[in-house]
Structure to design on (129 residues):
């Protein structure tokens, strides 16, 4: 507190929780250089801004998660195709090769698939001790 006053001149602040019905995303904190600068209208505008920011952040996060999941599915499908073509495997067999490698190495399936696409080498399966 004292450093904020001394170094930055902050004398007041108001914070808003950024949230959706499912989670808290973060907070929006506004600072003032005078005592009690946030009247009722300013606090209401802050609430409106926080609500809109939360919607934008939640939507952006959802879209990023969707794109990441889609990219992962594409990589896994490509890796399955490589194994099917190269080793004459059925789709479920190729998937099981990827799955076993991921499980034995304790890495995500997508990572194994991307490695196979890049190296064109059979995914390794670490022996369990």
């Amino acid at each position: 507190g004292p450093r904020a006053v001394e170094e930055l001149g902050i004398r007041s602040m108001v914070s808003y929780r950024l949230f959706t019905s499912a989670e808290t995303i973060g907070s929006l904190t506004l600072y003032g250089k005078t005592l009690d600068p946030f009247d009722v209208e300013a606090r209401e505008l802050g609430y409106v801004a926080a609500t809109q920011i939360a919607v934008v952040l939640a939507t952006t996060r959802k879209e990023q998660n969707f794109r990441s999941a889609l990219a992962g599915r594409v990589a896994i499908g490509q890796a399955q195709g490589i194994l099917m073509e190269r080793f004459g495997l059925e789709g479920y067999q190729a998937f099981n090769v990827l799955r076993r490698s991921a499980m034995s190495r304790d890495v995500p399936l997508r990572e194994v698939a991307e490695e196979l696409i890049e190296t064109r080498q059979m995914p390794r399966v670490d022996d369990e001790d």
